[in-house]
Amino acid sequence: MTRPDALQAFRVARTWFSGGRKIDLGELAEELGVGRATLFRWVGNRDELLGEILWSLAERVFDRQERRGSGTELVANTVGDFVRTVNADEAFRRFLRTEPERALRLLTTKASVVQRRTIAKVAEMLAEEVDVPPLPVADAAYLVVRIAESFIYTDVITGGEPDADKARQAVLALLGP
Fold first, then answer.
1. DSSP secondary structure string, 11-57?
2. What local confidence, expressed as pLDDT, does residue 155 receive?
3. For residue 174, how far is the Cα from the chain centroid?
4. d(C-alpha 139, C-alpha 68), whole Å
5. Buried b / exposed e across 84-122, counting CB within 10 Å, b at 16+?
6. What is the pLDDT of residue 63?
7. How many Cβ atoms sit within 10 Å of the Cβ of residue 33?
8. What Pfam families does the annotation carry (predicted)?
9. What is the SS3 assignment for 114?
10. Residue 32 in contact with residue 7, Cβ under 8 Å?
């Protein structure tokens, strides 16, 4: 049997999350046969671990080799794909339903690894694909991500239906032709 490590802890926690099991660090430490202090050194607190799990579900959209379009169309398509992917993930939707305040804090605040990394990925795309963004790249990336968030968390925020196509259209409206 291999000795447990941070990567194994992450994999077990992600499997639990995907299966609908609440992540409890005490139970995870027990499952791995390590102390809570060791687990904390490896993965941080529960929120930090959940942030990494959530990012692992979302980042694949940005790391795809297949790209649809170029310029503002590519950015808008990628944002639409991001919103669609996140909205289609049942584990993510379950987490949003069962722990909405924690989910929004982990996903949409400045402390969020998910938001910070998403903004960085969008900024890279904007810098590569858009000749003259309507704002400085960092500001435009932030605004694009907030648009995406608006159409991911619509049900929690306003009770409406999440809509990837509206996110795509809004990004196109912001960035122009």
1. HHHHHHHHTT----HHHHHHHHT--HHHHHHHH-SHHHHHHHHHHHH
2. 76
3. 21
4. 24
5. bbbbebebbbebbeeeeeebbebbbeeebbbbebbbebb
6. 76
7. 10
8. TetR_C_36 (PF18598)
9. helix
10. no
Amino acid letter, residue 67: R
Query: Residues 106, 54: contact at Cβ < 8 Å?
Result: yes
Q: Render 117-172 in DSSP notation, one character per residue.
A: HHHHHHHHHHHHH-SS-SS-HHHHHHHHHHHHHHHHSHHHHTS----HHHHHHHHH
Minimal CA–CA distance to 82: which of 59, 115, 99? 59
DSSP state of 63: T
Q: Which residue has the tokens 């808008």?
A: 76
Helices 71-88/137-152 angle, 10° precision: 30
Asked if 155 and 166 count as a contact pair (C-beta separation under 8 A), the reply is no
Q: State the 10-residue block means of pLDDT for the chain, 177 residues long.
A: 88 96 96 96 95 89 72 91 89 89 86 90 92 90 93 80 91 89
Residue given tokens 């529960």 in the structure block: 46
d(CA 7, CA 104): 25
Kindly state the tokens that stand for 8.
Answer: 């194994």
